[in-house]
Amino acid sequence: MPGVTKEQIRQAREADLFAYLERHERGVLKRDGPNYRHKEHDSLVYVTAKNYWYWNSRGKRINALDYLMEIRGYGLVDAVNALAGPAMQYSFPSRDSQDYAAARQARKPDHCYLPWQKKCATSYVSYLQKRGISTVVIKRCTQLGILYEGSYKKKEPEGKATYIPVCVFVGKDEHGTAKFACMRGIHSDLRKDAYGSDKEYSFCLPPHRAGSRHVAVFEAPIDALSHATLQEMDGWKWDGYRLSLGGTSHVALFAFLERHPKIRHVDLYMDSDYAGLKNARKIKDMLRADPRFKHIRVGIHPPRQGKDYNELLQIKKQERHRLPERRLEKQGAISI
C-alpha cells in the first residue's frame, strides 16, 4: 500500500481511540454508567472495565483505525497518518484526575465550518441526477441553501493539499443559521461531516407549507431526496419534513421533535439491512417509552426493493424506462 508501511498500520490499529477522541473530537463522548457512549453514534460504546470499543449496531469490536475509516470516512493512508507515529503518543491525564474532568468539559467549536462553495457549479447537479434525483428537488434544495457544491481540502502525506469536489448537505437551526454539514464526494467515496457540525441540526428538507405534523426519517440526505423524487414521480399527496439522521443514531430526531412539538407522525425509512431495521425498532421503542413523545404515531417503512431509498428510486426509474420497450415488443408480437 503506497504511502504507509505495515508497521504504521499496526501502530494505527493499536492507537488509543479514547485519547484520540478527547484530543480531536472533544465533547463527542458522554458517560453511560461505568462506560462511555458516542453522542453521534450511540451504538458505539467504550467498555471501561475491559478497555475496548464495541459497535453494537454492527455487532463487533472496533479500533481507532476502524473508527476513522468506517465512521468518519477516511481513506487508509489518511487514517494511518492521523493515528500512527509520535503524534499519537499522548500523555492523557488519568480518568480520575481533575485535569481529565476539565478536558471532558472542553468547549465544542463555536460554529460549523462550512466547506468553500464553488461558484457556477454543475458537477453536483450531474452527480445527483445520475443517482436519480429530480432536477426540481435539486433546485429547491439549492434555493433553500441546504445543498451546494463545495471543495474539501485534503492534506496528502508529502504535505501537499488536494481539493476534492463534494456535495454539501447543510442543516440549519430555526433562525436559518448553518449548524451542520455533511460532505459526500462527487468523484470519490469521501464521506465526512464538516468540523464543528452539531448532529442535533442534521440535514432536513422542510415541507412546502409550514406547520406540518409529519416527519419522514432517513439515514442519509440522498435517501431523503430520493423519497422526494419518488413522490414527484408517483404524485403522492404528502407534505412533511424529511430528516436525515446522518447514520442510525436517534440524536437528530429527538432534537428535531423537541423543536417541533406539533409533530404527530414519525415514519422511519431506514435501510433494509440488519443495522437499519434493528435501529428503526430501537428508535420506535425509545419514542414510545419517552413521556414527551408518547402521543406520536411511529411507522417503520423499509424499501420494498433495494437496500435503501436511493436504490429503490433507481430500480423504479429503470422499470419505467423499460416499460415502453415492453409495450413495443407486445405490439410487435400481436401484429405477427
Could you describe the 3D structure shown?
The chain is α+β, with helices and mostly antiparallel strands and 336 residues long. It has two domains: 6-104, Alpha-Beta Complex (DNA Primase, Chain A), CATH 3.90.580; 116-318, 3-Layer(aba) Sandwich (Dna Topoisomerase Vi A Subunit, Chain: A, domain 2). 37% of the residues lie in helices and 21% in strands. It contains eleven helices and 15 strands. It has helices at 6-14, 17-24, 64-71, 76-83, 98-104, 123-130, 135-144, 221-234, 251-259, 274-289, 309-335, and strands at 29-32, 35-38, 44-47, 52-55, 60-62, 116-117, 147-155, 161-172, 178-185, 191-193, 204-205, 214-218, 241-244, 265-268, 297-300. Strands 1-2-3-4-5 form a five-stranded antiparallel β-sheet. A five-stranded antiparallel β-sheet has the order 6-7-8-9-10. A five-stranded mixed β-sheet has the order 11-13-12-14-15, with helices on both faces. α8 (221-234) links the parallel β12 (214-218) and β13. α1 (6-14) packs across α4, α3 crosses α4 and α8 packs parallel to α11. The protein is globular, with a radius of gyration of 22 Å. The N and C termini lie far apart (60 Å). Residues 86-107 and 330-336 have low confidence and may be disordered.
